[in-house]
Amino acid sequence: MPQNNCAAIRAQLSAYLDGELDAAQSEALLAHLSECADCTTFYNTLRKTLLLYRGLAAEKMPDASRARLLQDLDLD
Known about the structure:
Elements (H helix, E strand, L loop, with lengths): L2 H15 L5 H13 L1 H18 L8 H10 L4
Helix pairs in contact: 1-3, 2-3
Protein backbone atom coordinates (compact mmCIF):
# COMPACT_ATOMS: atom_id res chain seq x y z
CA MET A 1 0.00 0.00 0.00
CA PRO A 2 1.49 3.41 -0.89
CA GLN A 3 2.73 5.42 2.08
CA ASN A 4 0.59 8.44 1.17
CA ASN A 5 -2.52 6.24 1.40
CA CYS A 6 -1.39 5.06 4.85
CA ALA A 7 -0.95 8.66 5.95
CA ALA A 8 -4.46 9.50 4.77
CA ILE A 9 -5.91 6.48 6.57
CA ARG A 10 -4.05 7.28 9.79
CA ALA A 11 -5.34 10.85 9.63
CA GLN A 12 -8.90 9.47 9.62
CA LEU A 13 -8.55 6.99 12.48
CA SER A 14 -9.59 9.34 15.28
CA ALA A 15 -12.67 10.40 13.33
CA TYR A 16 -13.48 6.75 12.69
CA LEU A 17 -13.17 5.87 16.38
CA ASP A 18 -15.40 8.83 17.26
CA GLY A 19 -18.04 7.68 14.74
CA GLU A 20 -17.58 10.76 12.56
CA LEU A 21 -16.96 9.05 9.20
CA ASP A 22 -19.75 8.27 6.79
CA ALA A 23 -20.41 4.69 5.68
CA ALA A 24 -18.27 4.92 2.52
CA GLN A 25 -15.31 6.39 4.38
CA SER A 26 -15.59 3.76 7.11
CA GLU A 27 -15.77 0.97 4.55
CA ALA A 28 -12.66 2.24 2.74
CA LEU A 29 -10.79 2.59 6.02
CA LEU A 30 -11.71 -0.93 7.13
CA ALA A 31 -10.75 -2.33 3.73
CA HIS A 32 -7.33 -0.70 4.05
CA LEU A 33 -6.88 -2.03 7.60
CA SER A 34 -7.67 -5.56 6.38
CA GLU A 35 -4.69 -5.30 4.00
CA CYS A 36 -2.17 -3.19 5.94
CA ALA A 37 -0.53 -4.59 9.05
CA ASP A 38 1.23 -1.30 9.86
CA CYS A 39 -1.99 0.72 9.86
CA THR A 40 -3.77 -2.02 11.81
CA THR A 41 -1.10 -1.84 14.50
CA PHE A 42 -1.42 1.96 14.56
CA TYR A 43 -5.23 1.67 14.80
CA ASN A 44 -5.11 -0.89 17.63
CA THR A 45 -2.66 1.24 19.59
CA LEU A 46 -4.76 4.38 19.15
CA ARG A 47 -7.97 2.53 20.08
CA LYS A 48 -6.43 1.08 23.26
CA THR A 49 -4.97 4.46 24.22
CA LEU A 50 -8.37 6.13 23.83
CA LEU A 51 -10.07 3.41 25.88
CA LEU A 52 -7.54 3.86 28.68
CA TYR A 53 -7.82 7.65 28.56
CA ARG A 54 -11.61 7.63 28.55
CA GLY A 55 -11.57 5.32 31.57
CA LEU A 56 -9.65 7.80 33.71
CA ALA A 57 -11.53 9.86 36.25
CA ALA A 58 -11.46 13.58 35.51
CA GLU A 59 -9.65 15.59 38.14
CA LYS A 60 -10.68 19.13 38.94
CA MET A 61 -7.97 21.72 38.53
CA PRO A 62 -7.40 23.72 41.71
CA ASP A 63 -9.02 27.17 41.49
CA ALA A 64 -5.71 29.01 41.95
CA SER A 65 -4.07 27.02 39.14
CA ARG A 66 -7.06 27.56 36.85
CA ALA A 67 -7.01 31.32 37.51
CA ARG A 68 -3.26 31.50 36.82
CA LEU A 69 -3.62 29.48 33.60
CA LEU A 70 -6.45 31.69 32.35
CA GLN A 71 -4.45 34.79 33.19
CA ASP A 72 -1.37 33.42 31.39
CA LEU A 73 -3.51 32.65 28.35
CA ASP A 74 -5.20 36.02 28.52
CA LEU A 75 -8.59 34.33 28.86
CA ASP A 76 -9.69 35.68 32.25
